[in-house]
Design goal:
This protein is an alpha/beta fold and 675 residues long. Helices cover 44% and strands 13% of the residues. β6 (251-255), α9 (263-271) and β7 form a beta-alpha-beta unit. The model has no long low-confidence stretch (mean pLDDT 95). The structure holds nicotinamide-adenine-dinucleotide (NAD). Nicotinamide-adenine-dinucleotide binds at residues 118, 126-128, 219, 222, 255-261, 278-281, 284, 325-327, 346-350, 356-358, 406-408, 545, 593.
Amino acid sequence: MTSFQEEILAGIPQDRIPEPKPYDRTINHAPKRKDILTDEEKALALKNALRYFPAKFHATLAPEFAKELKDYGRIYMYRFRPSYEIFARPIDEYPCRCKQAAAIMAMIQNNLDPRVAQHPHELIIYGGNGAIFQNWAQYRLTMQYLATMTEEQTLAMYSGLPLGLFPSHQDAPRVVVTNGMVIPNYSKQDDWEKFNALGVSQYGQMTAGSYMYIGPQGIVHGTTITVMNAARKQLKSKGIAGTRENMKGMLFVSAGLGGMSGAQPKAGNIAGVVSVIAEINPLAARKRYDQGWVDELHDNLDELLQRIRKAVSGKETVSLAYVGNVVDLWERLAEEHIHVDIGTDQTSLHNPWAGGYYPAGLTLEESKNMMAAEPEKFREAVQASLRRQVAAINKLTADGMYFFDYGNAFLLESSRAGADIMADGHFRYPSYVQDIMGPLYFDYGFGPFRWVCMSEDPADLAKSDELAIKVLAEEARTAPEEIQGQLRDNIHWIEEAGKNNLVVGSQARILYADCEGRTKIAMAFNEAIRSGKIKAPIVLGRDHHDVSGTDSPFRETSNIYDGSQFTADMAIQNVIGDSFRGATWVSIHNGGGVGWGEVINGGFGMVIDGSDDSARHIKEMLFWDVNNGIARRSWARNEGAAHAISREMERTPGLKVTLPNHADDSLVRDALKGI
Ligand SMILES: NC(=O)c1ccc[n+]([C@@H]2O[C@H](COP(=O)([O-])OP(=O)(O)OC[C@H]3O[C@@H](n4cnc5c(N)ncnc54)[C@H](O)[C@@H]3O)[C@@H](O)[C@H]2O)c1
């Protein structure tokens, strides 16, 4: 047995605790969280933390954990970080009694890989607070359970806490994850701060807490599609054809080079435009630069503006990072009347008061200190900064920029800050789902389809890419006009994916496909595993940016107009349905993208191993996973969805979906007159 395997099997050491670990200043750490607990609650947090360990260690650990709570606002249990390196290993290297559990261990370790995770030592994967576990004891215990579980057990995960292994059966999920589930009236931002500080709940974002994060590639794809379609929209409004050639020389401006937002410059390059992305944290900017995801770093606005003018006039394909505050960038662009074609923002505004957004006028360090020491003053600084940012953006949109909200609660928080963002009771600007992803993608069942090769061999990934292209090209031959463009964009994406070095961490890929595409690609993979053309199992999954799994009124379901966008039945139904149709693990989260209390989203992971069982799970589960959302969108009277579900009912005899009848608007208005 390797020492890696031994350490996993040891779980939380019972005889001797590891030596304390020095605080590593070379990596990116989570900001100090605000001091929100009363003295009594602090005692409770400490007792909660100590319950993971035998009483004989409490005298050593209690003062140490108390200090962590004081210094960082959380108890991470740094001492218990494992001594081995964390990254996704080939599946055979994990100690296990069932391969499904080994695959989940690899997915967990990929999330926590320092190349992938945003704040790896605080177990934060992306978005500033998207956690996979609350502390290192939970990590150790979970890995130990997974290493020892059989196919007749299910592990229950409560916001990072492995509650235990419970007897179940082979077809049941191996793991059921819930994150941040609270009584609805206790779902405010400060409730999260408090529950998380107490060690009883966490914000799992979505792919962080459901072990499905594949680094920024996951979002490069969605961002590429969004930037290309935003560019097409802009060109169309000027009567110009939306070809890639015509996109050259267009200027795209945004903020954020973090976990997700780091994908923006890469996507800009794939679309062939000039992108300028502001990032206030030099470490985050440098990480993306070193990875080759952004071409140039600039910290001088005068020089940057000159560089922008040159890039635009030369129609270069180039991505420029501004290492500074995005508000300064927007104001300068507006002052100098630079023509910006496409604008958006991807700071972590779902988490505005605890490090998601850094206000103008303060350095990064000043902000970090103020948010912990003077939270009210910090809140005012954020809101003032948002008002300035919106004012500059408004000037540029008046000059012809197309601006959209990029799913980070920018419009929502700006409106709460009193910025000039409303017109006629609505936001001045659309969300990218309302304008682009909803009508073109989600309503037709197109959504993220991810896979990770458990051999961790790039040759398997290349083989799977080939299979995916073949399936999509085949589908495109007979597909209706409405989805031809979506299929073409995705075939182009996969053809380019290998060349663009998109893999960070495990050998993973993503594309967008509808139910037919997802199912046929998965079946082709299963066949290739069965015949040995692909060496090891593959994990299938997705993110929240999809037709079914997510109820998010300011993002994924922002193009639902029957009033049901604030309900969350779809996400819950999605996960329950997936769990008895063959998912290897399922997860449901409060928050994810837009913020705690603002969204519910469900996810799944499925290990396929070339078996007949895998083939059955693929067919049954993917069908439900996609079509339950199309049915809901069709009921909400979305045209594309009505088209897609009718097509599906023709193909699938067992499917009977309730369809809406359409009422005449004038008849409805007349009926209400005089009442
Ligand atoms: N569009 C999508 O498809 C999509 C998908 C997932 C998440 N999101 C949302 O996008 C947001 C960003 O996600 P992420 O994972 O990149 O988060 P992140 O926290 O890793 O990155 C955000 C970055 O913005 C920087 N930043 C904050 N304020 C700034 C300012 N004023 N000026 C310049 N830089 C600033 C931060 O330093 C940070 O590096 C989140 O709200 C997330 O929920 C969008």
